[in-house]
Amino acid sequence: MTRLLRDHIACVRTRRSRADILRRVLPWFCIFLFAAAAEAQVQVDLKFKRLQFIAHEPVVATVAITNLAGRDIELHDADGQSWLGFEITGSEEQPIPPLSGANREPPLRIQAGQRVTRQIDLTPLYPVHEYGAYHVRTNIYFADLGKFFYSGTRVFEVTDARPIWQQTVGVPDGAGASGEVRTYSLMTNRFPDHTSLYVRVQDQDTGVVYATYSLGRTISFEQPQAEIDRSNQLHVLHCAAPRAWSYARHKRRPVIRRNSFRIGLAAAGLLTTFLACSSYAAKSSRSSGGDSSPITVVIDAGHGGYDRGGIPGQRVSEKDMTLDVAQRLGRALEASGYRVVMTRNSDVFVPLGTRCAIANSYRNAIFVSVHFNSATRRGASGIETYFYSRDSLALASAIHHYVAGGAPSENRGVRRRGYYVLRRTNMPAVLVECGFLTNPTEAAYAQNASYRQKLAEAIAAGVRSRNSVASSFSTTRVATAESIP
Ligand SMILES: [Zn+2]
Questions:
Q1: Which of 40, 192, 368, 467 is the most exposed place for a label (fewest CB within 10 A)?
Q2: Residue 410 CA to ligand 1 centre (angstroms)
Q3: Do 359 and 394 reside in the same domain of the chain?
Q4: What is the Å distance from ligand 1's center to 200 Cα?
Q5: Ligand 1 mean position to 185 CA, how many Å?
Q6: What pTM did the predictor assign?
Q7: Measured on CA atoms in the order 10, 12, 14, 16, is the torsion positive or negative?
Q8: 103, 137, 158: which is the final residue of a domain?
Q9: Residue 248: beta bridge partners?
Q10: Cα(125)–Cα(121) distance, rounded to whole angstroms?
């Protein structure tokens, strides 16, 4: 302000004709300054750390309150007014009302001349998760004077980050919401000077978001590695700087509060350590080999988590066999230059709808679901391959040709059936039953790692020759295109 005045004065000196204006303006200016000081018995400042926030991440406002009343004051709710409030308007200038049941601030005593700062997360107080710009100002109600004091208006923007990875998991037993499912998403957002990695926990069916928070800076051209372990914790390894990988462990400790439906996430559950970048170099380079081929193979390991697959009392658990074959298949296809996407890569439960949604999010993809069979009759045995849509017949025939052709088991043929994952995927989709785990001989095969490797390689061979096998083999029972409506 004084520099402005000085500049102004300097300017006036050189142009004497402006001196009159200054002489007229200056007294008014002084009166204005004095009035502002008299008004400011309580001075309120509002700041946001950033201009941009990701939907559902905490939007923390820093409110600084300076007591200029010349005596100690206490700010407290009175006359039906809460002492601290925010006036928020959305992108279309619509006022954003506070959420009901939002916590009241406890009374605040400020000594004369002191400045007190409070950090307040607006997201539990106001519905500010829609995309767009929000204008905010803080008001302080000073009950002694029955008067409001306001901060200046600040703007923040809510946007959404780009999802780069997603996995749906069951809430573990004893966590308060067992039986429900939650979807973890990893997202990135490019800020003007850096890119941040985010994790979100939500229930995709109801749309409820339980948490969104930043895992910190990341290097956008290196894909983070995400894994879910047996207790449904999310582990993320991402490149934080050119030579530093950052490791974050997201521990699911879901505590549901009845009103707000937010999940409390213990900060202690988030560990960040640094590992050498080189330890992951091999893995990154392997998965980036698929650029030459635009085909994505979505590999679906049947069952998982509490869904063991098979029939009650079955000794060999289907979910473990399917995952192992699926992972071997993934490696075989990656080696052939395919881009591979796993609907699950660990022992987790993934709903069928999610498996299809994952597959349907890729263009130019094919879907291969890996299962093992079961029957109450111990003698039941053999390999069978299922498809549903006409587009899937060639893929089913090719996979079946190699799997049934290479296995010592009976050939039960290619069959058409409307299994959920075959009906709800909009791409060539096949489900292979790699033998009966209830048959002692086939169960013994399945428990042998080199046999599972052979199964995986046979399926991979079928994928590679999906466009050339169907016509060349007619000896097995293959449904014909004419029999498909
Ligand atoms: Zn199965």
A1: 192
A2: 18
A3: yes
A4: 30
A5: 26
A6: 0.44
A7: negative
A8: 158
A9: 236, 272
A10: 8
> Picking from 1-10, 270-279, 366-375, which range would have the lowest pLDDT averaged per residue?
270-279
- 407 residue type, one letter: A
Answer yes or no: is 369 within a domain.
yes
Question: What tens digit of pLDDT does each residue of 405-449 get?
Answer: 888 888 999 999 999 999 999 999 999 999 999 999 999 999 999
The H or E element containing residue 211 is strand 208-218
Distance CA 482, CA 485 (A): 7
Domain match, 6 and 73 both = no
Do 141 and 101 touch, CB atoms closer than 8 A? Answer: no
Integer Cα distance of 356 and 341 in angstroms: 12
pLDDT category of residue 27 using cuts at 50, 70 and 90: low
Note the pLDDT of residue 272.
24
Q: How far is the CA of 435 from the centre of ligand 1 (A)?
A: 10
CA 268 to centroid of ligand 1, rounded, Å: 38
CA distance 78 to 144: 9
* Ligand 1: centre distance to CA 314 (Å): 12
Q: Are residues 190 and 141 in the same domain?
A: no
Residue 374 CA to ligand 1 center (angstroms) comes to 8
pLDDT digits 0-9 by tens, 341-354: 999 999 988 888 88
Count up the domains in the chain and report the number.
4
Of residues 188 and 29, more confidently modeled: 188
Do 176 and 149 lie in one domain? The reply is no
The answer to whether residue 267 is domain-embedded is: yes
How many A from CA of 308 to the centre of ligand 1? 9
What's the CA-to-centroid distance between 392 and ligand 1, angstroms?
19
- Cα–ligand 1 centroid distance for 234 (angstroms): 25
Tell how far the Cα of 303 is from the centroid of ligand 1, in angstroms. Answer: 6
One domain for residues 344 and 419: yes
Tell me if 342 is assigned to some domain: yes
- Domain of residue 90, CATH code: 2.60.40.2970
H runs (alpha helix) in 361-437: 393-406, 420-423
C-alpha to C-alpha distance for 9 and 274, rounded to whole angstroms: 57
Is the confidence at residue 290, as pLDDT, over 50?
A: no
Distance 414 CA to ligand 1 centre (A): 16
Check which CATH number belongs to the domain holding 393 and give it: 3.40.630.40
Question: Is residue 321 pLDDT above 70, yes or no?
Answer: yes
Residue 443 lies in a domain: yes
Q: How far is the CA of 302 from the centre of ligand 1 (A)?
A: 5
Indicate whether 34 and 48 sit together in one domain.
no
Residues within 5 A (CB) of ion ligand 1: 302, 309, 371
How many whole angstroms from 283 Cα to the centroid of ligand 1? Answer: 30
Q: Which domain holds residue 320?
A: 296-468
